[in-house]
């Protein structure tokens, strides 16, 4: 009972912390979770649209259109996806690149469908982070999938082939092997699962999972909502597109004007030393370096991106070097750069969790502050100040113990509407379950303590551009 009480107390501490930083969430605590989803998928209020924002949105839509066609969707569907996103300007960015049958991904997509359905949308774009390891913790992560209550090795890789290796590893040959981790797994369930997944080999694990999800979507949710999943390779193409034009703001301001990039990094370092520490750090400077299947950090020094472990220059911090490296996938944008080109510049609301609702506003503060210090882009600065709910908690909102694979095999498609309806009717505070992804993270308890002591508040300058 004491352990149960502690878990309940921890859950309410997380909710209280979220409501302290996002006071408007409190009104949804006892309302159906579909109401909360509907609010998040409302189109952001129209405000100032500087030229840089319009250009950035056009570039984002261009990359999404190409990704849709490449994934096998028709040109008409691709155009409809772009029209919906341009009008809605809301993007689910929470889940890592997991198979749709992974409960963490499945229930987040149900949450998104609740929000989209409330506004009559028939298309859905989800950005899935793929700069993650195949194994994130013991038998968890994109390389593993719970099948019949037991972990199965998605690609049948050995531990040495998985630990430290990334979803963007390649080129190689990756197949959906679905190898059980123990002898108790039911072979019939695994065989049924394999029949749902592509049988061809893929060069990268990320390619395999995206292709599988495109095939799984209609089996799980029918065809009334067209689905597109983009990942960090698409973002690499987006950044490359920004850098290819002589009039690109990202090119002229971030890469060709050293003061902005250096001020951004200095602001991140300042945050890491202050009361908001622990939420936004310099894991890498603007890009990740991919070498021998592994993701390595970089540091910006004297106009070059340096591998800090060896001191060797990887690329010059200039459009030609970075563009070439983005094309051959030896450089991939980090999450900061990603949020710059998919949200801050184009004015798109992003939904995430469990860290994103805290660190994304801090990223926006960093950009706003660096622009202010350098005296650059006053119209973009004003747009950041006036954005309507620029980001929010929209991933890990629904927690449910039902197994998506079991449901899919027993009742493919037929009960999807019933599941969405049942989960959408639950009050938000119940739908989120135990918030296990939050309460198991000590940073949330520390955040609650800092808010309680007044060490940090929603009135802080760091939170003002939220």
From TrEMBL:
Origin organism lineage: Bacteria, Pseudomonadati, Pseudomonadota, Alphaproteobacteria, Hyphomicrobiales
Name of the molecule in the record: Uncharacterized protein
Organism: Mesorhizobium argentiipisi
